[in-house]
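Notebook, student rotation project (T.W.).
Task set for the rotation: take a protein with a known small-molecule partner, predict the structure of the complex, and write up what can be learned from the model alone. Partner molecule chosen: magnesium ion. Sequence and SMILES entered below by T.W., checked by me.
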Amino acid sequence: MLQLKFRLSFHNTLKAHTQVRSFEIKKYPIIEVNNLKTWFPIKRGVLAGTVGYIRAVDITGLYINRGETLGLVGESGCGKTTFGRTLLGLEKPRTGEILFYGKNILELSRRELRELRKKMQIIFQDPLSSLNPRMNILDIVTEGLSEFGKIEGTREDHAKGLMNEVGLDDDAIYRYPHEFSGGQRQRINIARAIALRPDFIICDEPVSALDVSVQAQVINLLMDLRESYNLSYLFISHDLSVVSAISNRVAVMYLGRIVESGLTGNVIKNPMHPYTKALINAVPEPGLYSGEHKKEKIILKGEMPSPSAPPSGCMFHTRCPEVMEICSKQEPKETRSGMHQVCCHLY
Ligand SMILES: Nc1ncnc2c1ncn2[C@@H]1O[C@H](COP(=O)(O)OP(=O)(O)OP(=O)(O)O)[C@@H](O)[C@H]1O
Ligand SMILES: [Mg+2]
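Predicted structure of the complex:
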């Protein structure tokens, strides 16, 4: 069952700079992926070989411009985290290329990869489990600095500066993770992520575990930091409301593939793919996005198929309310209209 909620109250608490800027097509890509496939082998027993693959990610092309936020939405298990982990080098793709500032990171040496790690960071969903309970905040936020060396002034000064940037008091650096609220812990995670002054941050469901009022504060903080440091974000969430608040563009993922992408306003107000329409229609509260699509009520049938045995043709055909004969036979090609792309036989 889809768990998407569009919340007016949430959007009302966001700052004015939520008004997303328009970006031109692939103007200054900080990151770009081409034909990226991340598959996990399925093994039966210790001696048996690989009997199949979980095709977690299969992306033909996707890019994020410098200073841009790309929202990635889709149901649980569709491959969002695996995609983020692949970009960070935590999962090895089967094929494809990942260009960071135009350089394929899959061909970098270990030393070059280490340098790159400074520029790419990740913020996870669960703020508590991603912080070591035995380390105080000073050690947590300066851990990367110690590893990569080079800071001006003392570690304490640097950590206090980071606390101020994320809206926490100086003395927070002498405390431990369990002494903070969920929202404060996520601020600490953000402080750690920006400590090395990265250019690109993968935010993997960064506010999903937080209370709605706190969600808006954390989103506001991420937007402030984006402005201050011209950061680029890959913002992963199953909540279209949150994604639309912060993203310049949105990509919709189904079974590891991008089925639709475009400027946030276009995708939300004028969704083309039946899956995107269904995601938006699953929203109980009316009002926030009052595009034409609201007139038709689409309910998604059944569960998402297994990524180890994806359906033939269009992967969405088994659940699609607008399914046609061709859909089970032939994979749809991408159709492009300006900055709006969709993979569907309807177009
Ligand atoms: N290390 C792994 N080994 C095998 N399969 C994996 C591994 N990691 C993820 N998968 C599988 O890959 C698919 C995509 O998982 P992923 O965690 O990327 O989804 P997600 O979109 O992030 O879901 P959620 O919204 O629940 O976080 C799932 O079918 C999952 O079971
Ligand atoms: Mg995930």
